[in-house]
Design brief:
With 234 residues, this protein is of the alpha+beta class. The protein contains 3 helices and 9 strands, in the order E-E-E-E-H-H-H-E-E-E-E-E. The strands form 3 sheets. It has a 5-stranded antiparallel beta sheet with strand order 8-7-6-5-9, with no helix packed on it.
Length: 234
């Protein structure tokens, strides 16, 4: 069943229904209570479950209270009571140097735990000194006398051992066989193959079959097999 419009009290169909402020309205009936300007969901302001425009939205106003003798007496009485409570707290906490903390069961438990910890530490220090048989001043004096008669330290040996320089790798022997130049890049697929890039010179080349040959890359010194269609004779 379709609801009734909150302004004209006529049936509101779904195509023209506006649900706002816990009520149902026609789109044309959803207007300001003061100036009757048509509103929408973006520019309305609700007050007392009634729509208003921004210009006629009711403003909150404070109620003025008459300054009667009775009101002045109540004001002075409240002021005196607050001053009395302040002085009582001040005199009560005077000279303590700290703020008042409520004596709750939790605070009592914390205080008791701190007292137990401090008592345990005191007994530990006392038993430790009693077991050692000397007091702190005596220990400090003995340490000072030991430091005064300490033997001089042995001289340090600053002998310098030179680090041997690494031997340079021997240069590869000069090539005597055929020379080829790589025309493509190749990455070795097996351990017995060599990798090279375009422009590398291959020396000491030996033909294995129609597709493979054996040689050494002059740039890296690596020896291995390489495809013959990746190089050309120089």
């Amino acid at each position: 069943m379709n609801p009734l419009c909150s302004r004209c009290e006529q049936v509101v169909y779904p195509t023209e229904k506006v649900n706002c402020l816990d009520k149902y309205w026609h789109k044309g009936c959803f207007s300001c209570e003061s100036c009757k300007m048509t509103l929408n969901m973006k520019n309305y302001k609700g007050f007392g479950k009634k729509p208003y425009c921004n210009a006629h939205y009711p403003r909150t106003q404070f109620t003025a209270v008459a300054d009667t003798p009775e009101n002045r007496r109540l004001k002075e009485q409240s002021k005196i009571q607050s001053q009395v409570h302040y002085r009582e707290d001040f005199e009560k906490n005077k000279g303590k140097g700290f703020s008042v903390v409520a004596d709750t069961p939790e605070m009592q438990r914390i205080k008791k735990s701190q007292d137990q910890i401090s008592n345990i530490k005191y007994h530990e220090e006392f038993d430790k000194k009693k077991t050692m048989g000397v007091d702190v001043p005596t220990m400090q004096q003995s340490n000072a006398s030991q430091a005064a008669y300490q033997q001089p330290a042995a001289p340090k040996n600053y002998k310098y051992d030179p680090v041997p320089e690494p031997e340079q790798a021997a240069a590869p022997p000069p090539s005597t066989g055929k020379r080829y130049r790589a025309v493509y890049d190749y990455n070795a697929a097996d351990e017995d193959e060599v990798s090279f890039v375009d422009g590398d010179v291959i020396v000491d080349v030996q033909q294995i079959d129609e597709g493979w040959m054996y040689g050494r890359v002059e740039r890296t010194g690596s020896l291995g097999m390489l495809p013959s269609n990746y190089v050309e004779a120089i």
